[in-house]
């Protein structure tokens, strides 16, 4: 990298259903300034474009004269790799919005748009837990479950930009209904919303077994969340143990299919649910070792992410700097 390129900065935007986070990022993936504000999906996409412009101006003010060469955005939705248009972003209430085009008009800078979990995967690959690895998979379990794949030194985006949708792999034909409309998705077991739903259903089916969970929720079954399940697990509650075991096995079954399909050297497993229920990591690993083909799992390492909540913004900023390489690119 030339000295002038190393001095240049980029802006990364992590756009989700509840918050917009902006970061001014240098060539080493370090955040020099950051700002955030709530997302306002009810105001429509143009309001979000305006909010991104405001946040970009805020972090740009900290550049201290260094050039800002582009803006990358990771968005919680399906993105057309060719145009940066958002096919669908349910949490933002968007369909077929020409996002990249509108942002470039508002910001007067080159803009690159990709899916938010792909963005976080790219960050972990270039600057985090996956540095130097040519074949890896990231799985992030939070409110939903998403993933990203790096294969032979390339971030895999897919023909329509939706590669890595681990959360919507089917692991049980007769499983619970997912928010996508399918039955038995990984997310329908391992998403934060799904853990809460299954816990609430279990309490209704057997109030005695659910007594600890209900007490921790202040007696209100609607307040039983994945976090409440984690608290009950810390008290060795049998129902919480059962829910967490089922969650980990479903997540592990989906991960085993990914391991068979892509044969990664590294699986990075993170997200809010995993942070709150670290016991899931061991269950997922045991399930992968049991279910995946021995040859596919033999050299697999499972690790936690390194970049935390900033990964999406760092990845988007790095993506616009590097772009989609014309040939396989392996960071040193």
Please tell me about this protein's structure:
- With 332 residues, this protein is α/β, with parallel strands linked by helices.
- Helices cover 40% and strands 21% of the residues.
- The strands form 3 sheets. A 5-stranded mixed beta sheet has the order 3-2-1-4-8.
- Helix 2 packs across helix 3 and helix 4 packs across helix 13.
- The longest helix has 25 residues.
Fill in the keyword field for this structure.
about 325 residues; alpha/beta; 5-stranded mixed β-sheet; 13 strands; about 20% strand; disordered C terminus
Percentage beta strand: 15-25%
Total strands = 13
Count of DSSP H/I helices: 13
Outline the biggest β-sheet: 5 strands, mixed
The helix-strand sequence is HEEEHEEEEHEHEEEHHHHHEHHHEH
Uncertain runs are: 324-332
Mean pLDDT equals: 93
Question: What structural class is derived from the secondary structure elements?
Answer: alpha/beta
Overall form = globular
- What is the end-to-end distance? 12 Å
Order of strands in the sheet with most strands: 3-2-1-4-8
| Helical percentage | 40-55%
**Nearest-angstrom radius of gyration?**
20 Å
């Amino acid at each position: 990298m030339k000295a002038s390129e190393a001095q240049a900065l980029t802006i990364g935007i992590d756009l989700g259903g509840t918050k917009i986070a902006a970061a001014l990022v240098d060539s080493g993936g370090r955040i020099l300034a950051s700002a955030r504000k709530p997302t306002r999906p009810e105001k429509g996409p143009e309001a979000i474009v305006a909010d991104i412009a405001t946040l970009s101006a805020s972090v740009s003010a900290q550049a201290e004269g260094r050039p800002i060469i582009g803006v990358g955005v990771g968005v919680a939705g399906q993105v057309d790799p060719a145009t940066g248009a958002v096919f669908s972003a349910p949490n933002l209430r968007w369909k077929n919005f020409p996002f990249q085009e509108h942002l470039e008009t508002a910001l007067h800078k080159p803009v690159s748009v990709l899916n938010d979990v792909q963005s976080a995967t790219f960050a972990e690959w270039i600057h985090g837990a996956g540095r130097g690895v040519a074949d890896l998979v990231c799985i992030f379990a939070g409110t939903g479950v998403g993933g990203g794949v790096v294969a032979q030194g390339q971030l895999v985006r897919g023909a329509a930009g939706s590669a890595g949708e681990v959360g919507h792999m089917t692991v049980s034909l007769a499983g619970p209904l997912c928010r996508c409309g399918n039955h038995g998705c990984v997310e329908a077991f391992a998403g934060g919303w799904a853990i809460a739903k299954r816990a609430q259903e279990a309490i209704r089916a057997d109030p005695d077994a659910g007594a600890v969970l209900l007490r921790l929720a202040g007696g209100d079954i609607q307040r039983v969340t994945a976090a409440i399940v984690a608290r009950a697990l810390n008290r060795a509650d049998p129902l919480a143990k059962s829910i967490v075991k089922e969650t980990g096995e479903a997540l592990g079954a989906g991960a085993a299919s990914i391991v068979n399909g892509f044969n990664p050297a590294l699986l990075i497993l993170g997200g809010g649910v995993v942070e709150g229920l670290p016991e899931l990591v061991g269950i997922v690993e045991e399930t992968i070792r049991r279910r995946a083909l021995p040859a596919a799992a033999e050299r697999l390492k499972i690790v936690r992410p390194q970049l935390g909540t900033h990964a999406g913004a760092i990845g988007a900023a790095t993506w616009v700097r590097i772009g989609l390489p014309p040939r396989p690119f392996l960071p040193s």
